[in-house]
Amino acid sequence: MAISQQIEESSVNPDPFRQFKQWLEEASQSGLILPEAMAVATVSHSGQPSVRMVLLKGVDEKGFVFFTNYDSRKGKELSENPRAELLFWWSTLERQVRIEGSIEKVTARESDEYFRSRPRESQISAFASPQSMILRNREELEHMVRSIEQRYRNKEIPRPKNWGGVRVLPFRIEFWQGRKARLHDRILYTRLPNGVWRISRLAP
Asked: Is residue 138 flagged as an active site residue?
């Protein structure tokens, strides 16, 4: 499949979610490892930014979903300052997508459904790990894992109440396509108050 190395305001999909899904599919077909990997940037109440890599687990007309421990650093910062930015970088295609938005927790049902779909080992890890907390050593973590394994031996593992999904509700989505001489294409979608997406071109 030939992939265009340029984008125009007139040729992109009017719906940024459909445009994103097209690019994600092209990234998947290009052979990239984990094309769904994205950086998630958050900011604390004091203004300190932090960023980390997570995996996109869903995208629809409402937003972009990932899962986390709500008591982790990112979880606490999203509670204090419910906004985030996502960044996808697909190196072989010279493409990136930046997504800015507010956040909401997904429903308990959505979190339960996803948790049940995970391998049992991942369920145990989510339950056992006090994410972002300081540990004395590796053995402490492994002891917590063994404790959960024993507690739920031959039983279904319930989703921890402090673990679940986060949905980023975008108000800005930028599609960046690398071009020669650093004259890159940058197409910006901005959500207007009436819900319509406005498409603009940014200087590289």
From this structure: no
The pLDDT tens digits along the chain (204 residues) read 557 788 999 999 999 999 999 999 999 999 999 999 999 999 999 999 999 999 999 999 999 999 999 999 999 999 999 999 999 999 999 999 999 999 999 999 999 999 999 999 999 999 888 888 898 999 999 999 999 999 999 999 999 999 999 999 999 999 999 999 999 999 999 999 999 999 999 999
Distance CA 183, CA 69 (A): 40
Determine contact, residues 128/78, Cβ cutoff 8 Å: no
Backbone φ and ψ for 84, nearest 5 degrees, come out as: -155, 160
What is the Cα–Cα distance from 58 to 120, expressed in whole angstroms?
A: 21
Q: Considering the entire predicted model, what is its pTM?
A: 0.92
Q: Of the listed 182, 186, 191, 198, which one is catalytic?
A: 182
